[in-house]
Each structure stands twice: as C-alpha cells, then as structure tokens.
Design goal:
By secondary structure, the chain is an alpha+beta fold. It is 34% helix and 30% strand. The strands form 3 sheets. Strands 1, 2, 8, 9, 10, 11, 17 and 18 form an 8-stranded mixed beta sheet that branches. Strands 6-5-13-14-15-12-16-19 form an 8-stranded mixed beta sheet, sandwiched between helices.
Length: 418
C-alpha cells in the first residue's frame, strides 16, 4: 500500500475527507483540497495506471477525453497541467458538425471568440498520472493503493470505513464516491439512480493516418449514430463510431484490413487514408443520474453521480466541475471552521451541481433524439437549424462557450485566475 503516513484507525478521526476512487475526478478533488487547505485527505484506488515517463512516446491509449478550457484552467490552478503537456496532449482549435442526411453543418473556430484553442485531446491515463504526481507530492494526502472500500457505518460524527485486505478500518468526516458508474459508495449509501441504455454502442479506435492530423475535431450525424474523429499528435487519430450492438460486435471481429476498409467506406474523405489500426475497443452507452448527490456524510462526484451520452465529450469535464465545486464548498466551510461532512455544506454542493448536470444530460439526450431517423420534413428543419447556428454570431458564441465549459455557474478553480 502506497501511503504518506502509517496512521491507523482509533478513537480520533483519521481523515477529514476520504475519496474512494483515484481516477481523474477523484484525483482532481484531492488536488483541489490539498492546494487550498491543511485538510487531511485519503485517496483509495484499487489499481494504479501504467506509467508514462515524460519525454517518451509509448503507444496511444484507446481511451481519450476532449478536455475543455474550463478543465484546463482547473488543472493549471492545482499545478497539474504541465505534467500533461510534458507527456502528451493535442490542442484543437476547430470543430465541425454536420448532418449526414442533409447539407446542414456548423463550423466552430476558437478565433471567432478570441480564444487560442477550444480544448485538448488527452489520454485518460495521461490526465490521471499528472494528477497523481500532484497528490503524491502533497503532504496532506495519503494515496492508498491497492485498496478499496468494503463497507462503512456512521458513528458519533464519523464515517468508519472498512477496507479490503489488510487495510483494516479508518475513519473520516466525509466519504466521497468518485468510484465510477458502478459506485460502491453510492450503493452502500442507498442512493438510487435513474438509468436507461441507448440502443447504440460506441466503437473506439486509435489509427495511424496517411495525413498528419490538423487542429480540428469533426462529428457527422448518421441515422445509425454519430461518427467522430478526434485529432491526436502527428499521424494519429481517435475514431468513435456509434452503431447498434450487433454491428459494433461485427466490426470488432474484423481483421485490421477489413476494419480499415469499413472505416474508409463509411467515414468522410476529410479524414484521409488510414494506414493501420493501432487499437480498438467498445462500450455500451448509458444515461444515468443519481436522485441525490449526497447522503449522511457522503457525497458523489463524476460518473458515480451521472453518466451522459458521450457524443459531445462532456463526461469527464462535468466530473471535473463536480470535483471543483465540492472542493470549493468544503474549503469555504473550512474557513468558517465547519465540519466537511456537514449536511448543510453537502446540500449546497448538490443544489449547485445537480441542476447544471441535469441540463447537460437533457441537451445531449435532445441531440441524440434529434438525429435519429426522422421524416423528411424533420430532417430539413434539423439541417436548417445547423446552418442557422453557423451564421448566428451570438448563438454560435454561446454554444462554443458551453462546449468550452466557460459558461454557467463555474467553480472558482474553473475560472481564469489572475
């Protein structure tokens, strides 16, 4: 077990905050708390990611995220952004969205709103490792790995946590579930979640292309589901192909040669030729939203609280905003000597983030339904709406700012700090 102290459970509170899940969102929460206070924090993670030594160029991970400007600001403000740049990140300055059944399209450019870029494509492992560098160097954080939560109970203003293996039990004032869509913390807390599956699965692939990638992401909406390309560094790209489960299973079973042929016959010519497939995988698409984000001395962040349709790449960005908002609420309470597990503080976090996330879930769900197979008249209206959005300056700027994560009620960490 990798930890910064040998402290064991006793009659006193071991930790102020214990975060179950040391992935991207959980590590962001720990980094934000460590940067702003003397709180004693524990992070439980069952498996550390494979190392990525800065200056080397290992194979690309198939799991990547489009980090918004808001997420970049958060990473800068906790001191983790440079660790990403030292490893690998690809900026994008343009986004093109178009209707595969008609001529409607919208083209977003960072220069239209005076921004240097719209975001960065970053491998999930790179993001997690940069944040781990940060929290492992923080004297107030114990990184417990491998470790997982087995059970917990409340006792005299504490959460007594039973850990796996020889971890024994530790206590905390606040238990945070950052442990993903199948959250153990959420289940143990008895928090219900509304969940529904989309009929599509997502096939993801990392490919080598004949043309060097530019600074643009594109997404085309087809009746069978969206198709997207995310640029990676050099002659690399990440492709996402949404289709029904049977077809995705068929695509995964193809040889590399046949898979490349399927890609090139279905994806737009703007991509250029594909030289080889480096990796591929797939996953089902689920929409889920917890009925509550908090319980007695418990809070949920990220996928433990919500999962969204990935077509706009907002999942990790919403989770990062959760982490920053919860950290802000805790730190402001700390300044007034308030218990971080106090229900009033946690309810403030829930009111802040649940409404923001519900709105984004509805918007993405609306996009999905709008681009399902539709009668001709509906397709025409849909296409016209994209064209209008492309020409409507104020509306276009507003959409871009939401995509960049710079609109809405932002936590302080997500703002441009002077």
């Amino acid at each position: 077990m990798n930890a910064h102290s040998d402290k064991t459970a006793g009659d006193s509170v071991d930790y102020d905050v214990m975060i179950v899940g040391g992935g991207m969102v959980g590590s962001m929460l720990a980094a934000a708390l460590a940067a702003g206070s003397s709180l004693k924090i524990a992070v439980l993670e069952h498996q550390e990611p494979e190392p990525f030594v800065p200056g080397t160029q290992p194979p690309y991970d198939v799991r990547v995220s489009a980090l918004s400007i808001a997420t970049q600001r958060m990473l800068e403000n906790v001191g983790a952004w440079q660790g990403i740049l030292d490893r690998r990140a690809c900026p994008f300055r343009q986004m093109r969205v178009w209707d595969g059944e008609a001529d409607g399209s919208t083209h977003f450019q960072a220069g239209d709103i005076g921004a240097p870029e719209l975001g960065h494509i970053v491998e999930n492992r790179v993001l997690q490792l940069a944040l781990l560098d940060n929290i492992k160097s923080a004297s107030s954080v114990d990184y417990l790995c491998p470790a997982s939560l087995v059970d917990y109970h409340l006792s005299e203003g504490k959460v007594v946590c039973e850990l796996s293996g020889e971890g024994g039990s530790v206590t905390t004032r606040l238990l945070v579930g950052a442990d993903g869509a199948r959250s153990t913390v959420r289940e143990l807390a008895g928090i219900e979640i509304e969940r529904s599956s989309y009929p599509h699965h997502a096939l993801v692939a990392t490919v080598e292309t004949e043309l060097a990638q530019q600074d643009i992401t594109w997404q085309r909406f087809q009746p069978t589901g969206p198709e997207a390309m995310l640029p990676l560094c050099g002659h690399r790209a990440s492709l996402v192909w949404y289709h029904d489960e049977e077809h995705v299973r068929h695509l995964r079973s193809l040889s590399d040669e046949d898979f490349i042929e399927a890609l090139q016959s279905s994806f737009p010519v703007e991509l250029g030729g594909i030289k080889q497939v480096l990796e591929r995988g797939s996953f089902p698409i689920v929409k889920a939203h917890a009925l509550h984000y908090v319980a007695e001395r418990v809070a949920l962040v990220g996928d433990a609280a919500h999962t969204v349709h990935p077509l706009a790449g907002q999942g990790v960005n919403l989770g990062m905003l959760d982490a920053a908002a919860l950290a802000q609420v805790i730190l402001e309470g700390r300044a007034g000597e308030q218990d971080p597990g106090q229900r009033r503080l946690l309810r403030r976090y829930e009111r802040w983030r649940r409404g923001e996330n519900a709105m984004m879930i509805s918007i993405l769900d609306g996009f999905y339904h709008a681009f399902k197979p539709q009668p001709h008249g509906v397709r025409s209206l849909r296409s016209a709406a994209l064209n209008v959005a492309d020409r409507a300056g104020p509306l276009k700027s507003m959409v871009m700012r939401y995509a960049m994560g710079t609109a809405g009620d932002l936590p302080a960490l997500a703002r441009q700090l002077q």
